[in-house]
Amino acid sequence: ILVQDGDSSVEYRAWNPFRSKLAAAILGGIDRIHIRPGAKVLYLGAASGTTVSHVSDIVGQEGVVYAVEFSHRSGRDLLNVAKKRTNVVPVIEDARHPHKYRMLIGMVDVIFADVAQPDQTRIVALNAHHFLRSGGHFLISIKANCIDSTAPAEAVFAGEVRKMTAERMKPQEQLTLEPYERDHAVVVGVYR
């Protein structure tokens, strides 16, 4: 939506919490997402780049979003987002193998992960060890039934938090994404 304000116009964009885990976390009341103007963000599981575009808006031209996506189909859409946004660096690669894209990415302030894999905490930890500065933050979207479809969601979340602490990742906040997503949580923390 373009709104005229005197001689200039301001663009307002809709950010759907039913289609974005980050938007759901923000509307759900997460204290801090740590993504701010000028930040360098590693986004794991960028998909077609819709949420990446909102993160790009937040970090602004002084910041950068390294957007990692494994799927070539989604990657095509992500490349189109990056053509319009000079602060987005698309990386069409498997987040399980950060050594394959280490030449493209410098140290980052924040990792946001929405990879929906059974070993997603290990994937985020690998990337944190490569790219996340000490004192940097991580946000992980956890889909419980992707990790263990037989266990209660709360037990899955607790298990993932235990794995994080073993990887120098200190969880600080956890929030379920109801009513936007069933059996999902976002965990925010700091890397030491």
TrEMBL record:
BP GO terms, sorted: box C/D sno(s)RNA 3'-end processing
InterPro entries in the cross-refs: Fibrillarin (IPR000692), Fibrillarin_CS (IPR020813), SAM-dependent_MTases_sf (IPR029063)
Any one GO molecular function term: histone H2AQ104 methyltransferase activity
One GO term describing the cellular component: Cajal body
Keywords (A to Z) from UniProt: Methyltransferase, Nucleus, Ribonucleoprotein, RNA-binding, rRNA processing, S-adenosyl-L-methionine, Transferase
Entry's family note: Belongs to the methyltransferase superfamily. Fibrillarin family.
Protein name: rRNA 2'-O-methyltransferase fibrillarin
Taxonomic lineage of the native organism: Eukaryota, Metazoa, Chordata, Craniata, Vertebrata
